[in-house]
Amino acid sequence: MDMTPGITPTTTGMDGIAWNILGQTYVPKQCSDRVFSWHATLPPGTFVPPHIHPTQDECLYVLEGRFDFWLEGEEMQGTPGDLVRLPMGRPHGIFNKSEQTIKCLFWVSPTRKLFDLFWAIHNLGPKANPADVVAVSARHEIDFLPPPEEG
Fold first, then answer.
1. What is the CATH number that goes with domain 16-142?
2. Which parts of 40-150 fold into alpha helices (H)?
3. Count of other CB atoms within 10 angstroms of residue 116
4. Regarding predicted confidence, which is higher, 124 or 116?
5. Residue 142's Cα: distance from chain center in Å?
6. How many CB atoms lie within 10 A of CB 151?
7. Cβ-count burial of 15 within 10 angstroms (0-12 exposed, 13-18 middle, 19+ buried)?
8. Cα separation values, 52 from 11, 71, 72, 79, 142, Å
9. pLDDT category, 126, cuts 50, 70, 90?
10. Which residues make Cβ contacts (< 8 Å) with residue 21, sequence separation at least 6?
């Protein structure tokens, strides 16, 4: 599928889609074989556990709020106006440890199976069985890392 020219308005997503992804809201803005972008709203306390995209580069642009990131074992923060680069094959996690909602624009290249993954986990809820999320994610080329060992 090729990219079509035009504008996706700020208040809508593609075809009116809005996904509930484990308590976060993702609104797809553009999807083609080469790039997939979505607006994300992350309420306080929500996160995406450490994982790897073995077939995609991922970026996000912070619009509102403060993100906490874990990137290859290092903790860092992103604030409005920051571009966060998450290269293919590099482990990373995304967290909202603040008291305010975060808004950002994500995109991956190439799209691969991520659009389909979001449909697969849409509406599972924030209390979804982690093993189920990990299994379906692996089938869609997203590899979650095991939890750290407690020492």
1. 2.60.120.10
2. 114-121, 130-139
3. 13
4. 116
5. 11
6. 3
7. exposed
8. 30, 10, 10, 22, 6
9. low
10. 118, 121, 122
Q: Which amino acid is at 71?
A: L
Determine contact, residues 29/37, Cβ cutoff 8 Å: yes
**Amino acid identity at 19:** W
Task: Return the closest-CA partner of residue 100 out of 58, 68, 61, 59.
Answer: 68
How many residues appear in the chain? Answer: 151
Could you state, in order of their start, the residue ranges of all structural domains in the chain? 16-142
pTM of the predicted model over 0.85: yes
Q: Which two tokens stand for residue 148?
A: 């750290």
103-132-86 Cα angle (round to 5): 40
pLDDT tens-digit readout, 61-120: 999 999 999 999 999 999 999 999 999 999 999 999 999 999 999 999 999 999 999 999
- Residue type at position 107: W
